[in-house]
Amino acid sequence: MQYKKQIIEEVASIYKVLSNERRIIIITVLMEDNKPLSVNEICQQTQLSQPVVSKQLGILYKYQIVCKEKVGTSVMYGVDDPHVVEMISDMIQHVKHEIVGKPHPRNLF
């Protein structure tokens, strides 16, 4: 039971990390570009300041949601977890579906 409790606690921690709008914006930019981006490129695409982007990337890196690689003088970031990409893509589709008021599919199970 302790093992299951640890897993549930970590799941809750990751959901907390993903509950931040700025982090979702950064992740979706990285998903859409489908290639590693520098902090400056992320700042340009998100209209967020460099300190904000750097702080959020640090949190995302800590939870292994993004990866980083030093290239010359730049640090390049990319999405590191296909599960997170799938979760966010699914949630975006859910929200798009919900916004237009369509009923959800009933053949889930």
Highlighted features:
109 residues, alpha+beta, three-stranded antiparallel beta sheet, 63% helix, globular
Can you describe this structure?
The model has no long low-confidence stretch (mean pLDDT 90). It is globular and about 50 Å long. It has helices at 2-18, 21-33, 39-46, 50-62, 82-99, and strands spanning 37-38, 66-71, 74-79. With 109 residues, the chain is of the alpha+beta class. It has a 3-stranded antiparallel sheet with strand order 1-3-2. The longest helix has 18 residues, at 82-99.
In short:
With 109 residues, this protein is an alpha+beta fold. The chain contains five helices and three strands.
DSSP summary, beta strand count:
3
Q: What is the share of helical residues? A: 55-70%
Indicate the radius of gyration in whole angstroms: 16 Å
Side-by-side strand order of the widest sheet: 1-3-2
Mean pLDDT: 90
Q: Could you tell me the strand content as a percent range?
A: 5-15%
The helix count comes to: 5
Could you outline the blueprint of secondary structure elements for this entry?
Blueprint: H1 2-18, H2 21-33, E1 37-38, H3 39-46, H4 50-62, E2 66-71, E3 74-79, H5 82-99
Antiparallel strand pairs: 1-3, 2-3
